Amino acid sequence: MSAALQRRVDASGTELLVSGEYPFTQDDFNTIASLLYADSGIHLDPAKVSLVYSRLAKRLRVLGLRTFNEYCAMVAGESGLEERRAMLAALTTNVTRFFREPLHFDHLRDKVLTPSLDRLRAGGRMRLWSAGCSNGQEPYSMALMVLSVLPDAADLDVRILASDIDPNVVATAQAGVYRDDEISAIPPQLRRNCLERGDGDRWRMTEKVRRLISFRELNLMGDWPMKGRFQAIFCRNVAIYFDGPTQERLWNRFAKMLDPGGRLYIGHSERAEDPLLQTDGLTTYRLKDAAR
Predict the structure, then answer these.
(1) What is d(CA 284, CA 266) in angstroms, rounded to the nearest whole number?
(2) Which residues pair with 265 in a beta bridge?
(3) Which helix (H) or strand (E) holds 136?
(4) Whether residue 111 is found in the same domain as residue 218
(5) Are residues 109 and 248 in the same domain?
(6) What is the mean pLDDT of residues 236-250?
């Protein structure tokens, strides 16, 4: 790949960002970046040239195309919707694991779930949202935390929305099947109570866990069909792919979806700057008193 990344020009004098199996020009990169931004709000940094090339070259091989110019014409055309979805899936990174940033889950248990137990047992409502659920480890971690303090939660009015823009990872998450090495971070007692052995090294979330979660394909830049408010929203390490204005719009939309006393959880490298929000520590946020 190193030789492919050496810059040169083709016979027409056009500079190639990549001169490997498929010539890749600045115009090609700009077209792909513009389409990705329009569809998802994701900002492609120019430093990602090699990543874009390596991931999308696989799509060109599958489609039998000869150049990135042909590919760009396809995804920009009216008939290119399906391939644009495939392009999005190829260019997004799904890094996740069970109980990632564990202090967030301790905070969820202590500040959101435990204070609500009496209200929930009396018929109250609780809604949690994993926005950018990837392969499902985050919403299942949320569900396991719920069940750790409220074992009969699936029979009460407690539900978790798990959404992602990529239909492929939503399908994986909905299946709820994971390998031995993927579930190692789940505490042993929760593992015994909430997972069942599958084939080989596979484990599956039990029905009581899966009943708590609704999985949906959802574009955070699009319309949100949800009407009610949430007691907790997890959107961690998602906004890092957006530019500043897009982040600001997203934080404001999340703030308006929070119930008074609810919490927004974001990644450790992110900051939610919005006039409706104030930090609660540990990169968690809640509505300011004046906004309640």
Answers:
(1) 6
(2) 234, 284
(3) none
(4) yes
(5) yes
(6) 94
Tell me the residue ranges of DSSP E strands in the chain: 8-9, 15-19, 23-25, 125-131, 157-164, 177-179, 195-197, 202-205, 213-217, 230-235, 258-266, 277-281, 284-287
Q: How far apart are CA 270 and CA 214, in angstroms?
A: 26
Q: Tell me what pLDDT residue 244 has.
A: 93
Identify the CATH number of the domain in which residue 262 sits.
3.40.50.150
In this structure, the answer to whether residues 284 and 169 fall within a common structural domain is yes
2 domain residue, yes or no: no
What tokens were used for 220? 């955070």
Query: Catalytic one among 28, 39, 164, 259?
Result: 164
> 87 near 32, Cβ under 8 Å?
yes
Task: Using the predicted structure, report yes or no on whether residue 197 has a pLDDT greater than 50.
Answer: yes
pLDDT band at 289 (very low <50, low <70, confident <90, very high): confident
For residue 202, the tally of other CB atoms under 10 A from its CB is: 14
Same domain (yes/no): 128, 67: no
Q: Decide if 186 contacts 98 (C-beta within 8 A).
A: yes
**Can you give the CATH number for the domain in which 61 is found?**
1.10.155.10
Q: Would residue 97 count as lying in a domain?
A: no
Same domain, yes or no: 85 and 215:
no
Domain that holds residue 45: 8-91
In the residue annotation, 28 being an active-site residue is answered as no
> Is 127 known to be catalytic?
no
How many domains, in total, are found in the chain?
2
From the list 55, 85, 97, 125, the catalytic residue is 55
Q: Nearest CA to 20 among 63, 52, 45, 43?
A: 52
pTM of structure = 0.87
